[in-house]
Amino acid sequence: MRSFTGPLTLSAFGLLTVLASSPVLADDAATKTTEKINVLNEAQLTVPAAFKKSPPKSRIVEAEFVATDGKGDDELTARVYGMASGGGLEPNIARWKGQFSESPEGAFKREAMKVGDWQVVIVDHAGSFSERMGGGPFAGGRMVKREDYAMTGAILQSPKGRLYFVKMIGPAKVVQANRDDFVKMIKSLDAS
Predict the structure, then answer these.
(1) Which helix (H) or strand (E) holds 97?
(2) Distance separating alpha carbons of residues 119 and 125, to the nearest angstrom
(3) Which of 70, 128, 140, 169 is paired with 98 by a 20 to 30 Å CA distance?
(4) How far apart (Å, rounded) are the C-alpha atoms in residues 143 and 86?
(5) Is the pLDDT of residue 35 over 70?
């Protein structure tokens, strides 16, 4: 039997290189690596490819990502994270609203929608954000004021009445640049 290790190997390598760089295969690879957020073991969200996985900054956060805007030294980032929660819809919206001060007129917006059998409220707010450093959102810790910040948050209520939060918070420019992807992620809620 004759062996074709020389030119055939090179040709096969060339063919594999072409196939690997094919947009169709690149799209398939991106589809296979799409991140999902498990929502209360009842549904999942599809995370936009632009949001990069990041280690959670708190033990109560179940999934965390980074959204960006700009390049190089001009790149700014915002946190995108999800977690189960309690405390009720209205008290949590009031708490989120209370984390901002010096807000411009019309900075607080609220939109209710239904995604499948889930009730969803999307909240937008901007201004100076009071971030608690250490101790988590309900404990002590030093408070740091972040100027020109924004938040787009979603409260997802399952058909069983359980709540799950997803928030994007950071410099207003970053939140505004990534808001459409964030809302698309919330609307991807799939309970099948």
Answers:
(1) helix 89-98
(2) 20
(3) 70
(4) 23
(5) yes
- Rounded CA-CA distance 76/73 in Å is 9
Residues spanned by the domain of 112: 35-187
3-state secondary structure of 146: strand
pLDDT digits (tens, 9 = 90+) for 145-174: 999 999 999 999 999 999 999 999 999 999
Contact 82, 54 (CB under 8 A): no
Residue 16 shares a structural domain with residue 88: no
Q: Is residue 23 part of a domain?
A: yes
Q: Dihedrals φ, ψ of 143, to 5°?
A: -100, 130
CA 136 to chain centre: 19
The pLDDT score that the predictor gives to residue 33 is 62
Number of domain units in the chain:
2
In this predicted model, what pLDDT tens digit does every residue of 52-92 receive, in sequence order? 999 998 889 999 999 999 888 889 999 999 999 988 999 99
Structure tokens at 178: 């990534």
Cα–Cα distance measured from residue 66 to residue 77, given in angstroms and rounded to the nearest whole number: 6
